[in-house]
Specification:
By secondary structure, this protein is α+β, with helices and mostly antiparallel strands. Strand 25 and strand 26 form a beta hairpin. Helix 2 runs antiparallel to helix 11 and helix 3 packs antiparallel against helix 11. The protein contains twelve helices and 26 strands. Among the domains are: about 100 residues, no CATH class; about 80 residues, no CATH class. A four-stranded antiparallel sheet has the order 20-19-17-24, with no helix packed on it.
Length: about 650
């Protein structure tokens, strides 16, 4: 009997081995399958005739050939590759938005700057003036398009995020179900290899979306660890996305108040792309648009068009509360503590007066600013509490501007003689300055020898000495430098008589004109709503190319043209052309880095796959060799049983 047991055990073991080989061959092209091998073990010995005799062989288990280290390496590679691929794909789309070419922001910014430069040679040219306004509109449209393209891309990422979350939330419960089934089978002493392969395949699918790693806890139920949270064990709480106070995407699981941090996978790639890559370029494009608006508006606001100073002017921007401080009133651009100079022109005689207003955004509201402007003779300002805007109006016969023009008749209250000064010209200096004029002796202009006036700057440094004595012609302009001249009428001067002349290079050091949008070139506060002021688009004559309104005066236009080389744009404070180039180079570098990383990950994956296949992959030729081995073992066991059966027959015949 025991001899039969050994033989039949060999047949059963060989049959099981052949069945396992057949299963391997059937799954040779299944990428999720791990090769299985029968593990043979001797059956327990039994005592017979005072000897321990072997009782044959048995299959102790069907082993699944799998290396946990390699499997985890592949899983991490899957997550890394999906994250990098997702970011690279999105970065390439942003790169396409910024690719130079006809109609690109590169092309339109250059076209606009070129037209400004062309106009500076013929500031009164109607066609050129209109062309500048048109090119400015084209540039604004480019910013609008970039904003729309980036927002559309962000919306597409949001939609894809929702789909990825749906997939993960559908796959993870399957892992939970398999965990329980596998645990039951293992509790019964079975090898649930097919279910283990199925679970690995699902985990790898999840790994495409989030970085996961199985770990054993408690009763042997594997728990999927995602980032710093347990994703799935014997139960599962769905993942969800929400926005934080800064508009950034946060990942949470179930009702947990703590955000879930993940480091890889498509989900992480989408969140990183949305929160960092897209958001970064949205902010940088927006910052560039804001700097273009504010920089050009600051210059344009201090000029005048072909019709000269204004009779009235309305703000393009508004406040949220006319009684709130300017710092808290929701203006699109910051107001700083500084000075605003308003020139008022008497149109009957051309005389100009210059008025300095002190601006303090922490203490003054829009209503306060209106009151302040109202202190200027012949001006009033009206605030609309419904719209939050302000309008500045001049009395009939007067006009105003923000050019910082010279006061034609300086204050003569400290002159005790009869010779009165008059200023003329256009200050060409780069900083605001006040020149003090002091008579050095007493006499009559044009008559008294060596009658002199010393001119000193605000630091007390001597600028020049004017000879208004013998030989001076009454009313003759005397050059004091930087484009400014002073003349005296016929009369007397007494020693220590004095007057001052304010020389204004920056009429608005507070930035309030830009913040309110008074005499603006562009409207809007960023790339989404940037446009050309209706004041310009409706009439080219309002393009502020001049500082005086006189024919041929292109002083303000030259200031606009100099902005081509001004280091005042974007977050890097470089020229407009340079900042656009930096943006393009930056996204190009990002794409290049991500592509290189993806190539490296692909090479690593190929090496890991080769290692996995060498252990877990099915080689039909190798299986054929094993099949022949167990076929022969089966045949030998069969021959043994047949021989033993014949021997028993012969024995029984002898006994009979």
């Amino acid at each position: 009997m025991w001899n039969f047991t050994s033989g039949t055990s060999a047949i059963r073991a060989s049959q099981a081995a052949l069945d396992t080989i057949a299963n391997n061959i059937a799954n040779a092209n299944n990428p999720d399958y791990h090769r299985q091998v029968p593990r043979l073990a001797s059956r327990p010995d039994l005592e017979r005739l005072n000897h321990l005799m072997g009782t044959g062989v048995e299959v102790s288990r069907i082993a699944r050939l799998r290396d946990d280290t390699i499997a985890q390496g592949i899983r991490k590679n899957i997550s890394n590759t999906q994250s990098i691929s997702t970011q690279a794909q999105i970065a390439r789309q942003i790169e396409s938005f910024l690719t130079p070419g006809i109609g690109s922001i590169h092309d339109r910014s250059q076209a606009f700057l070129n037209e400004v430069e062309r106009l500076s040679a013929a500031p009164d040219g109607i066609a050129l003036r209109q062309s500048v306004i048109t090119k400015a509109g084209d540039l604004a449209s480019s910013f609008n398009s970039l904003n729309q393209d980036l927002q559309k891309l962000a919306d597409e990422v949001d939609a894809e995020l929702a789909q990825v979350l749906k997939t993960v939330n559908e796959l993870a419960p399957k892992v939970v179900e398999l965990n329980l089934e596998i645990a039951k089978a293992q509790h019964r002493g079975l090898d649930p290899n097919a279910m283990l392969d199925q679970r690995d395949a699902i985990i790898n699918q999840i790994a495409e979306h989030v970085d996961v790693s199985p770990q054993e806890f408690g009763e042997g139920l594997p728990v999927l660890i995602m980032g710093d949270n347990a994703l799935a064990g014997s139960s599962y709480d769905p993942l969800r996305i929400e926005l934080d106070s800064d508009g950034k995407l946060l990942l949470r699981q179930g009702d947990s108040p703590r955000p879930t941090t993940i480091s890889n996978g498509k989900l992480e790639g989408l969140i990183t792309s949305r929160n960092e890559i897209i958001s970064d370029y949205q902010n940088r494009i927006d910052e560039l648009a804001r700097s273009v608006i504010s920089t050009f508006n600051r210059v344009h606001a201090t000029g005048v068009g072909l019709d000269g100073p204004f009779a009235d002017l309305k703000s393009q921007n508004s406040v949220t509360d006319v009684n709130a401080s300017l710092a808290q009133a929701g203006l699109p651009f910051e107001v700083e503590a500084g000075e605003l100079y308003i020139s008022v022109t008497d149109q009957s005689n051309g005389e100009q007066t210059l008025h300095r207003l002190n601006v303090d955004p922490s203490a003054q509201s829009l209503n306060d600013v209106a009151t302040l402007i109202g202190t200027v003779n012949h001006l009033q300002a009206v605030v609309n509490p419904n719209t939050g805007g302000i309008a500045v109006l001049a009395e009939p016969g007067y006009a105003f501007d923000f050019t910082g023009s010279l006061q034609t008749k300086p204050d003569s209250t400290l002159i005790t003689g009869t010779a009165l000064p008059q200023a003329s010209g256009r200050y060409t200096g780069t900083a605001n300055e006040t020149y003090q004029f002091v008579a050095q002796n007493t006499g009559t202009t044009g008559v008294t020898p060596n009658l002199a006036i010393e001119v000193r700057d605000s630091q007390g440094q001597l600028v020049t000495t004017l000879d208004v004595g013998l030989g001076y012609e009454s009313g003759q302009p005397l050059d004091i430098g930087n484009g400014v001249s002073v003349s005296l009428n016929a009369g007397t001067l007494n020693a220590a008589d004095q007057f001052s002349v304010e020389l204004i290079a920056n009429p608005d050091s507070s930035g309030i004109l830009t913040a309110l949008g008074l005499n603006a070139f562009f409207v809007g506060d960023g790339s989404a709503n940037m446009g050309v002021s209706e004041l310009l688009s409706s009439d080219h004559r309002n393009l502020a190319t001049s500082r005086s309104g006189l024919p041929g005066d292109a002083a303000n236009l030259h200031a606009l043209a100099r902005l081509r080389d001004a280091a005042a744009f974007g977050s890097n404070n470089v020229t407009l052309t340079e900042e656009i180039g930096v943006l393009t180079a930056s996204i190009g570098s990002t794409v290049q880095d991500l592509s290189a990383t993806k190539e490296n990950l692909t090479a690593v994956r190929q090496a890991l796959d080769a290692e996995r296949d060498s252990l877990s992959g099915v080689d039909p030729n190798e299986e054929l060799v094993h099949m022949l081995e167990f076929q022969r073992a089966f045949q030998m066991a069969s021959r043994y049983i047949s021989t033993l059966n014949q021997t028993l027959d012969e024995l029984m015949n002898i006994v009979r």
